[in-house]
Amino acid sequence: MTKIDFYQTCDEEITFACRLIGQVYRLGHQIYVHAKDAEQAVAVDEHLWIVPQDTFIPHALQKSGGDAPIKIGYNHEPLDHQDVLVNLSGIVPHFFSRFERVAEVVPAEEDRRQAARNNYSFYKERGYAMKYHQMN
């Protein structure tokens, strides 16, 4: 069964997500980043060139068709199975259960946290194993 991790951060959402992606990648995982829209997907793509600062993270936009261990997409199901889903979309993607792990990034802004609360309730009602991480 898919394991779900929520990460509440005080940092800007994309910057934190890129650091998390770097950590997960260094552990040997393939990652699909599910953005809310094209603008956010491009922002993640651009941030991964500079965050984290200490290493190169091979990545590609899903629509480019490039072969990379980290794919970034939005508004559609990923083309191939990856083992970790980083969800930035604000909603639970219908394909989340294909993944071994889901990382839900909880935005720092209080007015944007309701979507994360809704996602938490969705997973909890269905009996998924969840952990909540307060990041500083």
Shape: globular
Q: Which structural class do you get from the secondary structure elements?
A: alpha/beta
Give the helices and strands as they follow along the chain.
Answer: EHEHEEEEHE
Poorly predicted residue ranges:
none
Main β-sheet, in a few words? 7 strands, parallel
Q: What is the first-to-last residue Cα distance?
A: 29 Å
Indicate the percent of residues in helices: 25-40%
Strand element count: 7
Fold and architecture overview:
With 136 residues, the chain is α/β, with parallel strands linked by helices. The chain contains three helices and seven strands; from the N terminus they run βαβαββββαβ. The chain has a seven-stranded parallel β-sheet with strand order 3-4-2-5-6-1-7, sandwiched between helices. It is globular. The N and C termini lie far apart (29 Å). The mean pLDDT is 92.
